[in-house]
Amino acid sequence: MPENLFFGRRPPVPLWGKKIDIIVGEPIEFDMASLKQEAAMVPHDPSSVRKGWPTITPGGLDEAAQRWLYQKMSDKIQSVMERLRKRLLNLKQH
Fold first, then answer.
1. If we measure between CA atoms, which residue out of 77, 71, 72, 74 comes closest to residue 23?
2. pLDDT digits (tens, 9 = 90+) for 8-49
């Protein structure tokens, strides 16, 4: 991945706008168009501390929206991994 894509930094979400298939036990699907739209409508807390996330254009997602999007995707991956872990534990016990 090119290092100098966004002002010398890697993009916050690799392969933005591409269809990405991640399969760990079961397919994980992200509807990026609706997630981005939902992230853009997240209420903004003006008192929150900025952590330096770049503004993504042309989508225009600000830092709060990007953090929401990252958290939503991370939560979904974590829940799938937890289900896989529990399934493996059940198999070991039998």
1. 77
2. 666 666 666 677 776 666 778 889 889 988 988 888 777 666
Residue 50 Cα distances to 21, 33, 45, 46, 73, angstroms:
31, 25, 11, 10, 20
Q: How high is the pLDDT of residue 71?
A: 92
Q: Are 35 and 42 in contact (CB under 8 A)?
A: no
**Torsion angles phi and psi, residue 67, rounded to 5:** -65, -40
Residues 10 and 16: their CA atoms lie apart, in Å, by 11
Strands (E) across the chain are located at 22-24, 26-28
58 preceded by a cis bond (ω within 30 of 0): yes
